[in-house]
Amino acid sequence: MIQNVSLELGGRRVVVVGGDSSAARRASALLGQGAVVRVVARTVGPDMRRLYDVHHDAVDLQVREVRAGDLDDAWWVTAPGLPAAERARVAAWADERRVWCDGASAHVDDTLVPADGSSPRRDGTGRVVLVGGGPGADDLITVRGLRELSRADVVVTDRLVPVDLLSALRPDVEVVDVGKTPHHHPVPQDAINGLLVEHARRGQHVVRLKGGDPFVLGRGGEEILACRAAGVPVEVVPGVTSAFAAPAAGRVPVTHRGVSRGVLVISGHDALDVPSLVAWQHTIVVLMGMRRLRELTAGLIRGGKAADTPVAVVQSAWTKDQRQVTDSLAGIADRVDLEGLGNPAVIVIGDVTSVLATHPDQP
What we know:
By secondary structure, the protein is of the alpha/beta class. About 30% of the residues lie in helices and about 20% in strands. It has helices spanning about 20-30, 45-55, 85-95, 145-150, 165, 190-200, 220-230, 240-250, 275-280, 295-305, 330-340; strands spanning about 15, 35-40, 60-65, 75-80, 100, 105-110, 110-115, 125-130, 155, 175, 205-210, 235, 265, 285, 310-315, 325-330, 345-350. The strands form 4 sheets. A 5-stranded parallel sheet has the order 3-2-1-4-5, with helices on both faces.
């Protein structure tokens, strides 16, 4: 049995089938390893087009249907965005030519081994691991989360995960983007659940990578239940939730002795229980609430919340694009519009927003 097969891709021909964002990420990672990349795709998306514009001297781009002959001079083939039937066809072509293929097996010295070089799975059963990717910076994921990513055959990813985590994946890992934007869910939750179950039943190690923490407004519970109902082994790796990390990035402690003894975390997408929010005398953190910020603040003031209650908004926390504004409950919506802040952002309501503003960091 051959184990721990190491694939050196420098100078070797790699074929990427597909032109969507997942294929572009895969091609970028392969270029970073020194591979000679050929991309074959019937359509080319904007991410792949940008990659080609930058690396046109290093990428052979063929806009057409893939053919078996495209693999004749290849060392590796990857087809991250293809439907299962088309991916199986490419894998069969690769097997005939003894070419490595991600998500499939390959021959090495007449021994059939998985494409990642690990021991073949004998029982055909896989598993799903929900991993919290943290609030934005790639080094705020947990050590356990990184370990699960290193084991992944498939990563089903959200829009707000740290992009460097994806670029660091092995080139054979299939990345499936199911990201949502506010009020736009191109892949329904039931379909996401089905993807997790389908890949695990193929015997693959599936990582469901989420921004923040899977159980904090992340629908992680629904995905756990779907896997259990299908008889698929599933576990969760918690992450650093943006509900606490984004305020920390803006130097806002969500609790502070003598100021706030508790935190109420709410979704800005859902109906607001204004009386409960007004009665809560401690910190309120609002996730996914930027589109309803003006409605939220006006409703709180009408309900009896003091108009001069301090508010902070932290956008793109822990990234190079981080921005922050503070104002009163009455003025924050206008201030956000003036400064041009938008999603992704976290809203913090309460006196804690001014605690460190009056006690700046010492050098």
